[in-house]
Amino acid sequence: MRFSLALVFSLLPFAPLSAQINVDQHDGTTDFTARGIAANVDGWAHNGYKVDRQGGGIGSGILGWTTIMQDQNCASTTPFQFAIFGGTAARATGLPVGGWGVSNTWPDVNNVLAGTALFTSPTGAASTACAWIFTTALASPLDMSAETDVFTSALLVSNLAWVNDGPSSHISVSQAAAGSANREYPIGSSVSTTNREINTEFGLCWIGLGPASGGSVFVPATRQYWLNRLRYTHTSRAGVKDTTGQFGAIFGAAGPYNFGMAGSYPDAANISGQPTATPRRDELVWSDQHAGDFAASAGFGQVLLATTMLRNLISAPLPLPGTGLLEINPTDSLFNLGAAIPGLQQPIVNLGSPTVYEPLIPLAQQPGIGAIIHANQIDLYAQVVRIDLASGTASLGSLDAHSFRQ
Taking all residues of the chain, what is their mean pLDDT, rounded to a whole number? Predict the structure, then answer.
C-alpha cells in the first residue's frame, strides 16, 4: 500500500483534508497522555472501529487516518510506525478466526491493511513535551468488502527513559455516572454485561505484539480513546437528540444533537437516572455527509433501516457497483421504513455539509416503543443512500447502529 506522510507540529485540532470526511472516536479533549504499555517492551496500541458500530462497514473505503503522538522530549528523535489492522483475531488467543460477521474480534497483527515504514520523528528546539499530528494519506481507498472490525494502531518501541522521554498519546476518558449527561460517550449502566459490551466496543486496547506472540493484553475498565480519526468520502452516523433539554443545558444551543459515541447507545428510557425535571430521553437521528457533493437540485437521501446485518446472513456484504457496500439486510421488515417516516427522506440542500435526518414522528418516544426496544436489547442498523437523479449516480454511507441496552 503506497502512502504519503504529512507532519504537522501543533497542539491544535487537525484541519480536515479537502474532499474527505473525518470520523473521530473522541470528543476533542485531552484528559491525559499515556504510553499504555510497559516501557521495556515494544508493542502496538490499538483503537477499534467496529463493523457494527460507527465507523464500520465503509463501502466507500478508507482514504487515510490521523494519529496524535506526544514526545516528552521534543529535542530527541523517536521511532514511529502506524498501521491499520484487520480485526480477524480472537480476543482470547490473538489467533485468526476468519469468517464473516465475527463480533468482538481483536486486531490481527499479521493482517496489515495499510501501514507506514518505521520512521524517525521530527524534532523541535526545546527539550520539553510536544505533540505531533501524523497524517497518513492512502494512494487509493481501502477495499473494506472483506473486513469486519478494523484498528488504527501505533507501534511504541521500548524506552527506559519514559516518563521523561519517549512517545505517548493524548487520551480522552469517559466514566459517565448516573445522573450525568456526557456528550460523546455511552452512559454508565447498572448491568455489568452492558458496561462490558460498551467498553469492548469502544475502549482502547493495548496488546504488545499479540497473545499469539507472548504479548500482554489489557482492556481498561474505563473507556479510553487515543485522539485519532479515519477519513472517508461518504459517512452516515447514528446519533441522538435529547428532547428534554439536558444536552442543551450543558452544551448550549448546539447541544441537542449528539453524534458522538453516546449516539450508539440511546437513553430512550432515561436509564441514566436524570432528575424528573430534566429526564434524558433520546430521540434517534442520523447524520449523512458526502465529500463529492450530490446535486442540491436533484439529489436526495434516505435512511435505510434493519435489525440485522447482511454479512451475518450470507457470505459477504452486497457490493453495488458505483454505490458501495449494502451492509443491512434488505429482506428485514424495517428495510425502507425510512421512506414512510417524515424526515428520514429529504432533499440534499447543504452541499458538503452534513444532512441531519430527524424523524418528525418520534421513534424512541412513542408509547411503549422505548420500553420495548430496551427490553429486547435491539440493535437498529442504518445506512444512508444518496441518489442524484440528474446524473443517475448513488452512494451508500457507512453502517452505523443504535443499540438499546438496559
Answer: 77
Beta strands in 27-97 (DSSP E): 32-34, 43-49, 64-71, 79-86, 89-90
User: Between the CA atoms of 322, 324, 326 and 330, what dihedral angle is there, to the nearest 10 degrees?
Assistant: -30
Residue 9 has pLDDT above 50, yes or no: no
- Annotate 312-354 with DSSP letters as a single string: GTSSS-EEETTTEEE-B-TTSTTTTGGGGSTTSEEE--STTSP
How far is residue 107 from each of residues 91, 182, 269, 317, measured CA to CA in Å? 8, 28, 34, 21
How do residues 313-335 score in pLDDT, each as one tens digit? 877 778 888 888 888 899 998 99
Cell numbers linked to 213: 506472540
Cα–Cα distance measured from residue 82 to residue 234, given in angstroms and rounded to the nearest whole number? 24
The pTM of this model reads: 0.84
Q: Does the structure show a pLDDT above 60 at 212?
A: no
Q: What is residue 239's three-state secondary structure?
A: strand
The C-alpha cell 433539554 sits at 245
Grid cell in block for residue 201: 466496543
Span between the terminal Cα atoms of the chain, in Å: 43
pLDDT tens for residues 245-285? 666 666 555 567 777 777 788 877 777 777 777 777 788 99
Rounded to whole angstroms, the Cα distance separating 293 from 20 reads 11
Residue written as cell 481483536?
A: 106
Q: Map grid coordinates 457470505 to a residue.
A: 315
Find out whether 194 and 271 touch, Cβ atoms under 8 Å. no
Give the DSSP letter string of 10-67.
-SSPPPPPTT-EEEESS-S---EEE--S-TTS-EEEEEEE-TTSTTBS-TT---EEEE
Q: Can you give the pLDDT at residue 11?
A: 32
Find cell 455516572 and name the residue: 177
Q: How would you class 311 by CB atoms within 10 Å of its CB: exposed for 0-12, middle for 13-18, buried for 19 or more?
A: buried
Range 179-200 average pLDDT: 69
Angstrom distance (rounded) from CA 230 to CA 152? 8
Q: What is the pLDDT of residue 324?
A: 84
Q: Show me where the domains of the chain are located.
A: 17-232, 234-403
Rg over alpha carbons for the chain, rounded to the nearest Å, is: 21
Distance CA 56, CA 147 (A): 9
- DSSP assignment of 174-228 equals E-PPTT---SSSPPP-S-HHHHHHHHHHH--EE-TT-GGGT---B--SSEEEESE
**Which of 72, 74, 161 is CA-nearest to residue 126?**
74
